[in-house]
């Protein structure tokens, strides 16, 4: 045997396992167990309370897709807020976008940032970028304290357990709406359309009540339950499907491109059904 098996309990009746060469760190923080594993199939992997958050092998798909769809829908995404995302992958994508002047990352757990800095340098590469400001705080509180300030707010949160529960509530989305400028855009990771149908449906319906435009789009993230993953956008003014694809700046990406931007909004029938 080349290593030991790490298993994630993806639902109460489904486990996924991967062969692990070593545990680079495993530490209990105030909020969760923070671990970085070195695995054979995915390379290094950030694991919080035994749940896979991101891996070196497939992180580009999630981080490009949670960031670039909104950044290229807004014509001037100068001031961006990221809630969660303590691994820094979303921050890396946001800071390297040419239109962005400032990116604020609000992560509740300092230990996630520390672990990523130390063990995931390819992902946590932008913490010291001149455009970046790092705040260790609860994203819910931060949003309540800011009004009419951000062009884009990205909610890169853990699954809806513990401190992340409030990040999926309608009341929180109203606060986000208030923290955005009058043409602002919110985007949130909203889990699996296969295993979290109710969440996908309820977040979409909440955003539909609050924002002029509300849309779900998809990407495939192999290390997440079921692979197929939802992102939900609420926009005050700009429609992500009306973007002039020729105006998207050339970006050095591995997944996202203008055709993917467009195609990501095409939903299979079973997902469209969830949004009715
Ligand atoms: N970039 C992909 C990684 C994540 S991690 C999500 C982060 O959200 C965690 O570091 C967690 O500590 C942080 N977080 C949770 N609640 C809050 C809060 N209230 N305020 C600020 N940060 C918070 C996302 C992975 C998605 C996994 C899907 N299975």
From TrEMBL:
The lineage of its organism: Bacteria, Bacillati, Bacillota, Clostridia, Neomoorellales. Residues 3-236 form the PABS domain. Catalyzes the irreversible transfer of a propylamine group from the amino donor S-adenosylmethioninamine (decarboxy-AdoMet) to putrescine (1,4-diaminobutane) to yield spermidine. The gene is speE. Coiled coil: none annotated. Its EC number is 2.5.1.16. One of its GO terms (molecular function) is spermidine synthase activity. This is Polyamine aminopropyltransferase. The active site is at residue 156. The keyword Glycoprotein does not apply. Pathway: Amine and polyamine biosynthesis; spermidine biosynthesis; spermidine from putrescine: step 1/1.
